[in-house]
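Fold these two proteins, one after the other.
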Amino acid sequence: MRIGLVGVGRIGAFHAATLKNLPAVKQVVVTDVDASRAELVAKDLGLEFAADVDQLLRSDLDGFVITAATSAHADLIAAGVAAGVPTFCEKPVAPDLADTQRVVSLVEASDVPVHIGFQRRFDVGYRAAREQVRSGALGFIHHIRANTNDAFPPPAGYIPTSGGFFRDCTVHDFDIIRFVTGREVVSVYATGANRGESFFGEYGDVDAAAALLTLDDNTFVSVSGTRYNAAGHDVRMEVLGSLGSVAIGLDEHTALTSVEPGVTFPGGDPHATFMDRFQPAYVAELTAFTEVVAGTREVPCTVRDALQAFRIADACELSRHENRVVSLEEIGR
């Protein structure tokens, strides 16, 4: 099949290289707002180049992958739907809730499949935990602990368009909590602080945050994260049940050091970036998209799934600013 990709920044170039190596993909065509950058990536990876999105969508595509800036996602999804091309878009669907709702309405009124990129759904650890939870092997779940700790902060220029810590970073935790448990969040209490570079605070953002979520079955979920974890990129989850408990991301690459005498675990090198941590999941995710394109698989992460995760992130932002518990009923559906 022939896949078009728009946006060849760090994750875009990474996805383009992944797509090129998938058995189902015959050719990848790339474009970018910076045409010269797209042309260079195409040359380096042996791909085709399109001068702009219009030319890309007219080049007989079977599938359309969006890895452009967040501000462009909504319009690009709309363009893919209008062209009738199965579309994959990195999260988020849009920078704000209103535009996200608009895209959900647009997509759900069409018959064009749109797959949103929450790659943790394809990580073997999270999928194994989901099976344990759904099968009842862990009994009833009473607590979940999830964290996303970046090894180093993004550049200052990224923050104004990121949407803030909860919408940009812990939104992955919010989505995977729904995926693993099959439950919905009913309320949140969140807080955050700017402990590092001052540019976070200058844009009204934080670089460390925590939230307590209550699910619709009274499971309690603690979510934490930071932009400063020089020990390594550390993404984990613990699911604690009445009959058993499991951990995701607890392996030789975990960015922790035990101070207990005689303990050498973990002994491997910590992950440096999210692409390192989730490289197999990204391959599985894009393989799934080729199956969506081929019509052999239902969309594994819908625009409505993305909306639900965004609503939780919005609730956390509101809670942080107003220092109170926020019900998800307060956040538009």
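Now the second one:
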Amino acid sequence: MKQAVAAYGRFFETIAPDSLDRLDGIVAPDVRFVDPFNDVTGIEKYRAVFRHMFETVEQPRFTILRTAIEGDTAFYRWRFSFRRKGAVEIWTIEGMSEVRFRPDGLVAEHVDHWDAASQLYERLPVLGALLRWVRRKLAV
């Protein structure tokens, strides 16, 4: 289990467009992936999520900050940095992935937990102003 957890973490820290074929030896054919934008099942749809990432952002980089294992599930605390196409500013998102492994070590399910509102939407010009106003109204 520890080897599978480490291998999956290494995959994310070294992810590149030409490394997506390595998913075949790391995730199950019917893997489920969930994040604030996607809920897909199947290795090809999972791979498509990453292809889309490489098409829409520049210099994407995941850094695994911490890992914990409980039974068949690993929890990865991570930082994702990227640059929007044509932009200068580097954006950073922090989150947690809950990853369930099958007995053979392949990833069965990967669920990302991160706050899309505060870490992404609030940074967008028009939508961000509205969301920041709502957040202030709801704050104690």
